[in-house]
UniProtKB/TrEMBL annotation:
This is DUF386 domain-containing protein. PANTHER family: EVOLVED BETA-GALACTOSIDASE SUBUNIT BETA, PROTEIN YIAL. NCBIfam families: YhcH/YjgK/YiaL family protein. One of its GO terms (cellular component) is cytosol. It comes from the Bacteria. It comes from Bacteroides muris. Gene3D superfamilies: YhcH/YjgK/YiaL. InterPro entries: NanQ/TabA/YiaL, NanQ/TabA/YiaL_sf.
Length: 148
């Protein structure tokens, strides 16, 4: 997992050929006031889900794991905590991986937590089981999906 501020995104843009495209798009559009839903940038290779979820209590949130996409969680409004646990330490699968939806779910308790504020992002790779949207109240965030 990588955590940083949008203003420092150039430091990670070389890690994937589509990261610069993603961060340039986010920085040049007012996505806080854009419609909710999917934003197409490069078809299924790079898109953003613009969402406004209600925070979930830490003890009720599950870890999710993806194989085909890197997630880039970008907070626009509110405060979000994201839990993390090493993939090697996962024990309790509650939903096996399904290619449709690119997701497996685990009920393990995260070992590490990161708090995001508006303008910050977290990049989670397939080896990063993560429990997003932990907190109270509504938040506004982007979940970019970057194809491996």
């Amino acid at each position: 997992m990588i955590v940083s501020n949008l203003q420092n995104s150039q430091r990670v843009e070389s890690l994937h050929p589509l990261f610069k495209t993603l961060f340039d798009y986010v920085k040049s559009h007012d996505l806080l006031h854009a419609e909710l839903g999917r934003i197409e940038i490069k078809g299924d290779d790079l898109f953003i889900n613009n969402v406004n979820p209600e925070g979930v209590a830490a003890e009720k949130q599950v870890l999710e794991l993806h194989r085909a996409y890197i997630d880039v969680h970008i907070l626009l409004e509110g405060k979000e905590r994201i839990g993390w646990k090493a993939i090697e330490d996962l024990e309790t699968e509650i939903k096996p991986y399904e290619e449709e939806g690119d997701c497996a779910l685990y009920s393990d308790v995260p070992t590490t937590f990161v708090d995001l504020l508006p303008g910050q992002f977290a990049i989670v790779y397939p080896e990063d089981p993560h429990a997003p949207v932990i907190g109270e109240g509504k938040i506004r965030k982007l979940i970019a999906k970057v194809k491996l």
